[in-house]
Design goal:
Largest sheet of chain A: 6 strands, mixed
Helix content of chain A: 25-40%
Structural class of chain B: alpha+beta
CATH superfamily of chain B: GHMP Kinase, N-terminal domain
Distance between the termini of chain B: 61 Å
CATH architecture of chain A: 2-Layer Sandwich
Number of helices of chain B: 4
CATH class of chain B: Alpha Beta
CATH superfamily of chain A: GHMP Kinase, N-terminal domain
Distance between the termini of chain A: 39 Å
Strand content of chain A: 25-35%
Helix content of chain B: 25-40%
Number of domains of chain B: 1
CATH class of chain A: Alpha Beta
Number of helices of chain A: 5
Oligomer: heterodimer
Shape of chain A: elongated
Radius of gyration of chain A: 19 Å
Radius of gyration of chain B: 19 Å
Number of strands of chain B: 9
Shape of chain B: globular
CATH topology of chain A: Ribosomal Protein S5, domain 2
Order of helices and strands of chain A: HEEEEHEEHEEEEHEEH
Strand order of the largest sheet of chain B: 1-2-3-5-4
CATH architecture of chain B: 2-Layer Sandwich
Number of strands of chain A: 12
CATH topology of chain B: Ribosomal Protein S5, domain 2
Strand content of chain B: 25-35%
Order of helices and strands of chain B: EEEEHEHEEHEEH
Largest sheet of chain B: 5 strands, mixed
C-alpha cells in the first residue's frame, strides 16, 4: 500500500483551509474531461475517458443467456471492474479487490437505478432467451476519481453499443435501447472542506468520499458514501445541489 | 428497485404490515449473547436476526497488514445459507457482502479509537441468520453494541436505519416487499453526538425534496435506535453486576 508522506498530508490540508487545491482548481471545479467513443473493434460498444490524467477504458460485450427466473421479461446488466497493475503500483493481479467491487457496484447502481437501459427490449424469448449486457471497466492510469471516469465511460460505451442479434440468429442488429443517462459526481472531504473530482493525492488524504448519481431531470438515482470520515446534513445538501448542476454539464458533453 | 404495479399501501392508508409511514419495525437488541467472543450482540429487527461478534484488539495477522499507527478495523458480513428464500451458495463472500463489509467497517472506524492499538486488529463478524431487508443496518447496530460489549474504546455508539420510498411516499425502515417493489432505499448511519453521516447509500429514485425528508426521517429513527443500544448495554451490565455480587458472597 502506498503511504502518503506527512508533508503531502499537511500540505493538502493547509491548502484546503485556504480554499486551494494542489492543481490550482476551485473546490467545485472538475478536471478536463474528454470522451472517445467506439474505439474497440471486438467490443459491441466502448469508450475511453480521460479525466485529467486519469484514463479509463470501458468495453461492452453482449451475450445471450437465460433471463433471471424472477425477471423473465428483462435482459441482464452485469457491471465489472478490474484494477490491474498497469494502472497503478498498488493494484495487484488476482481476483477483484474490494475497491474494484465497490467501483463496479457504484457504476452499476447508477445505470440500473436510473433505468438507463430499457431491459424489456433486450429479451429474445421471454423466460428463455435474453441479452446479457456486460459492462467492464478497465482503468489504464489511476490519477484519482475512477468512479466518475468509469461512470462516464460506461454511459458513453452503452450509448454507442450495438446489440449483435444477427450473431445469435435473432434477426437484425439494433442499437442499444437507451432511456436515460445517469451521471455521477464524486466528492471528497479534506479537513472539513468538500471538493469534487479528487486527484489521487486528494483521495489518499481524504477523510470521506461521496458519490451522487443524478438523472436528466436532476433527481437522485444512487449515492455511496465511502471512507471513515463523516458528512454533515449541510454538506450532503450542498453536494446534491452541486452534483445536479455538474451532471447536467457532463451529460451534455457525453451526449454531444 | 422497481415500482411496477405492486401496491404497497392498504386501503386504510397504512403499509402492508400495518405500519404508518414513519414507523419502524419492532427492534430488540441484546448485548453479550455469545460466550467465546470478546463482545457480542443479537439484533432482532422485524424478521431480521443478526448476530455480531467482536474479537480484539489482538495482533493483526498476517504481519504485513499491521499498521504501526493504529488498529485495523475489519468487518466480515456473511449471510447464512438458510437466511433467505433461495439458499445462499457457499464459496466465499459475494460482491454484495464484500461491499457491505467495507462500508460498515469504514463507518465503525469513525467512532473506534483505533490509534490506541497500533499493530492490532479489531475483527467484527456479522452473521445474518435470517434476512428480511435492512440487514446492513441491523448488522451495524449489532456491531457497535458488540464493540462496546468487548470494551473497545469508542467516541459513540453507531445507530443505523434506512428510509425509502413506496407508492410515491417517503417511509421509514423498508420491509422485504417494500425493498423489492418500492422506489428507493436509503440506508444511513449517524453519529449521535455530532449528527454527522458516516454511512450513506442510496438506490432508486428520489427528488431533492424527498431525499431531504428521508434523511430527516432516518436521522430521527437513529436517535431512537441509539437509546435502545444504550438500554441493551445497561441491561447486560446491570445483570453482570448482580452476578458478580453473588459470586463474592459465595466465596
Amino acid at each position: 500500500m502506498s503511504v502518503v508522506s506527512e508533508i503531502t498530508h499537511d500540505q493538502l490540508r493547509r491548502l484546503a483551509s485556504k480554499g486551494m487545491r494542489e492543481d490550482g482548481r476551485a473546490f467545485d471545479q472538475a478536471r478536463k474531461l474528454t470522451v472517445e467513443r467506439g474505439i474497440l473493434e471486438m467490443a459491441e460498444g466502448s469508450a475511453r475517458v480521460r479525466l485529467g490524467e486519469t484514463d479509463v477504458l470501458v468495453g461492452v460485450k453482449i451475450d445471450v443467456g437465460t433471463p433471471f427466473p424472477d425477471r423473465p421479461n428483462e435482459g441482464i446488466l452485469l457491471t465489472g471492474a478490474e484494477l490491474r497493475p498497469i494502472a497503478h503500483a498498488d493494484f495487484e493481479a488476482g481476483p477483484p479487490s474490494e475497491d474494484a467491487v465497490e467501483l463496479a457496484r457504484v457504476v452499476d447502481r447508477g445505470i440500473r437505478e436510473s433505468g438507463m437501459l430499457d431491459l424489456k427490449l433486450l429479451v429474445a424469448a421471454p423466460g428463455l432467451k435474453a441479452y446479457i449486457v456486460h459492462v467492464d471497466v478497465q482503468p489504464l492510469d489511476h490519477f484519482g476519481n475512477l468512479f466518475d471516469a468509469a461512470n462516464v465511460g460506461a454511459v458513453a460505451a452503452l450509448h454507442c453499443a450495438t446489440v449483435p442479434a444477427k450473431r445469435f440468429g435473432l434477426g437484425d442488429d439494433f442499437p442499444m435501447p437507451i432511456a436515460e443517462s445517469p451521471i455521477s459526481t464524486t466528492f471528497v472531504k479534506i479537513g472539513g472542506h468538500v471538493m469534487l473530482d479528487p486527484t489521487l493525492k486528494e483521495e489518499m488524504v481524504a477523510d470521506a468520499r461521496l458519490t451522487v448519481t443524478t438523472d436528466s431531470k436532476g433527481d437522485i438515482r444512487a449515492m455511496q458514501k465511502g471512507l471513515s470520515g463523516a458528512y454533515t446534513f449541510g454538506d450532503l445538501k450542498d453536494c446534491v445541489q452541486l452534483a445536479r448542476r455538474k451532471a447536467a454539464e457532463v451529460r451534455a458533453q457525453v451526449l454531444a | 428497485m422497481s415500482g411496477d404495479g405492486v401496491k404497497l399501501t392498504r386501503p386504510d392508508g397504512l403499509r402492508l404490515d400495518g405500519r404508518a409511514d414513519g414507523e419502524m419495525r419492532p427492534l430488540a437488541i441484546e448485548a453479550g449473547t455469545l460466550r467465546n467472543a470478546d463482545g457480542s450482540a443479537l439484533v432482532e429487527w422485524g424478521k431480521n436476526k443478526v448476530f455480531a461478534a467482536v474479537y480484539g484488539p489482538r495482533e493483526a495477522k498476517p504481519r504485513h497488514l499491521q499498521n504501526p499507527m493504529r488498529a485495523n478495523v475489519n468487518v466480515s458480513y456473511n449471510m447464512a445459507a438458510f437466511s433467505v428464500e433461495d439458499r445462499v451458495k457457499p464459496g466465499g463472500p459475494g460482491r454484495r457482502s464484500i461491499e457491505i463489509s467495507k462500508i460498515v467497517g469504514e463507518a465503525l472506524s469513525n467512532v473506534v479509537f483505533a490509534e490506541q492499538f497500533p499493530r492490532a486488529s479489531i475483527d467484527i463478524y456479522i452473521e445474518v441468520l435470517q434476512a428480511s431487508a435492512g440487514t446492513r443496518c441491523a448488522g451495524l447496530v449489532a456491531a457497535s453494541v458488540a464493540l462496546a460489549d468487548a470494551g473497545i474504546p469508542m467516541s459513540d455508539l453507531l445507530p443505523a436505519c434506512a428510509a425509502g420510498k413506496i407508492d410515491g411516499r417517503v417511509v421509514l425502515d423498508l420491509s422485504k416487499e417494500e425493498d423489492n417493489f418500492g422506489q428507493a432505499d436509503l440506508p444511513m448511519a449517524i453519529v449521535p453526538k455530532t449528527g454527522e453521516i458516516v454511512l450513506l447509500q442510496m438506490d432508486g429514485h428520489l427528488t431533492p425534496e424527498e431525499l431531504e425528508r428521508a434523511m430527516e426521517m432516518g436521522a430521527s429513527a437513529c436517535k431512537k435506535i441509539h437509546e435502545l443500544q444504550k438500554d441493551a448495554l445497561r441491561r447486560r451490565y446491570a445483570a453482570e453486576a448482580i452476578m458478580s455480587g453473588d459470586a463474592e458472597v459465595g466465596q
